[in-house]
Amino acid sequence: SQQGEEDPQALSIQEGENATMNCSYKTSINNLQWYRQNSGRGLVHLILIRSNEREKHSGRLRVTLDTSKKSSSLLITASRAADTASYFCATDSGGSYIPTFGRGTSLIVHP
Amino acid sequence: NAGVTQTPKFRVLKTGQSMTLLCAQDMNHEYMYWYRQDPGMGLRLIHYSVGEGTTAKGEVPDGYNVSRLKKQNFLLGLESAAPSQTSVYFCASRLQWSYQPQHFGDGTRLSIL
Predict the structure, then answer these.
(1) Which helix (H) or strand (E) covers residue A13, if one does?
(2) SS3 category, B102
(3) How far apart are CA B49 and CA B93, in angstroms?
(4) Which residue of A has its CA nearest to B47?
(5) B45 close to A (CB below 8 A)
(6) pLDDT higher than threshold 60 for residue B63
């Protein structure tokens, strides 16, 4: 069963625009991770945010975490056609090292 | 440094046939995982291992077996393939700490006719 659920399921934007996708989860977590998956490839790790952190940045990526709302958001600024991919959130809970993945957001960036 | 390598990349099987998918990692990771990815379903955990010689069931283990005889290798076996096992299979590995990300292979695309 999915712990995290991404929203929206699909997002279509123009190059240069910002893209925001959200992840909601059900139980308390140790950390939350965001991954990108290009078509026909495996998942690639983007950012990991711990439960005691509220915001992290990596290049054009900004991740926020609101543990009171059990939600996270991934913002991609100044998007590029190369950002076209599926984006997944994954959560680690309790003493488990078994991340639980959401169903993903499919992002299309039009040149 | 190849990371996580999955073999084969593609395979077509007939119902009832058996096969083994190989995952190899060269990062000395303790934890290894097998997932399947189906359209609209995200990633579902089949089996995982927390170290050499150990395996455990995940969310959807039926019809699959695994072995971790060497730390760097994690094998996924299909005993008697069924059309419902048509999927893309991903292997991942991770250091023994929860604040480390998973590293994924590029997947094995398996079709069962």
Answers:
(1) strand A10-14
(2) coil
(3) 9
(4) A98
(5) yes
(6) yes
